[in-house]
Amino acid sequence: MRTLTEQRVEPIPQIPDVPYPSRSEPPIRSDAVYVLFTSIESTLEAARIGHDFATAMSVPLTLVHVRPVPYPLAVDAPTGVSPLETQTFRDRLEAAGVKARIRIVLCRDERRALATAVPAHSLVVLGGRKRLWPTRTERFRRVLDAAGHYVVFVQEPSHA
Question: CA-CA distance, 106 to 116, in Å (whole number)?
Answer without folding.
Answer: 12
